[in-house]
Amino acid sequence: MQGLWAKCESCDEIIYRQELEKNWMVCPHCEHHHPWTARSRLAGLLDPDTFEEFDKELEPQDPLGFADSKKYKDRLKSTRKNLGENDAFISGVGRIDGHQISVGCFLFEFMGGSMGSVVGEKVTRVFERAHELKCPALLFSASGGARMQEGIFSLMQMAKTSAAIARFRTGNKPYISVLLHPTTGGVAASFAWLGDIILAEPKALIGFAGPRVIEQTIRQKLPEGFQRSEFLLEHGMIDAIVARKDLRTKLGQVLGLVG
């Protein structure tokens, strides 16, 4: 159960939780972007009462009988019970400023937003649905990457989702990719970077391997802010950084131009 007060992860200010939630989970003192649940994000960004969820019934299986410190099937069971969600991705159809979109959003709180077979299938269906409806596709990515508990079945989703995007593009509709904190691993190395328009939240960590792993591998110190959205914008890797409170307006503008 959450308390009445929250402490900012950046400036250490104590914030009344209702004030934080009304401010899109952004600190009113330093504008640090705190984690925001997928359902709250969709409710806040889409036109009211326009979201229709699809594929909610899909549940991940345990094809490898995988176990680390805990059996994969037990980890799935406990996570589903705690969150009330079947997997790390929500998808459906909605509208922003009246423009129809096929949309999907990661739940980082579900096993680090990792991509297994079900997540990959649901991402693929976002693009298949957009192609069928002849509307833009919009994805919000926040993930630690491929789900190791599903092994090669997880890695296959990188190619599968990328192929779905290639087919979607034959319909000449845009794919808008919004990169959240963090977007890493196999998700960053596949569909997250394939957007026609790539937006990111401020100070989001975006990349394949984390900076600590890279430094240990190449035995060199990385530049300040390496893999943060500001660094990526400066080097031409993304199109814009958009604060959370401005994102709905920005998406409406983009969809009005290219949707």
UniProtKB/TrEMBL annotation:
Localization: Cytoplasm
Binding site for Zn(2+): 8, 11, 27, 30
EC class name: transferase
EC number of the protein: 2.1.3.15
Catalytic activity of the protein: N(6)-carboxybiotinyl-L-lysyl-[protein] + acetyl-CoA = N(6)-biotinyl-L-lysyl-[protein] + malonyl-CoA
Keyword check for Metal-binding: yes
MF terms (GO), sorted A to Z: acetyl-CoA carboxylase activity; ATP binding; carboxyl- or carbamoyltransferase activity; zinc ion binding
GO biological process, one term: fatty acid biosynthetic process
GO CC list: acetyl-CoA carboxylase complex
Free-text remark on how the cofactor is bound: Binds 1 zinc ion per subunit.
Keywords: ATP-binding, Cytoplasm, Fatty acid biosynthesis, Fatty acid metabolism, Lipid biosynthesis, Lipid metabolism, Metal-binding, Nucleotide-binding, Transferase, Zinc, Zinc-finger
Ranges annotated as C4-type zinc finger: 8-30
Entry annotated with the keyword Nucleotide-binding: yes
Pathway: Lipid metabolism; malonyl-CoA biosynthesis; malonyl-CoA from acetyl-CoA: step 1/1
Role description: Component of the acetyl coenzyme A carboxylase (ACC) complex. Biotin carboxylase (BC) catalyzes the carboxylation of biotin on its carrier protein (BCCP) and then the CO(2) group is transferred by the transcarboxylase to acetyl-CoA to form malonyl-CoA.
Family: Belongs to the AccD/PCCB family.
UniProt-listed PANTHER family: ACETYL-COENZYME A CARBOXYLASE CARBOXYL TRANSFERASE SUBUNIT BETA, CHLOROPLASTIC
The protein, known as: Acetyl-coenzyme A carboxylase carboxyl transferase subunit beta
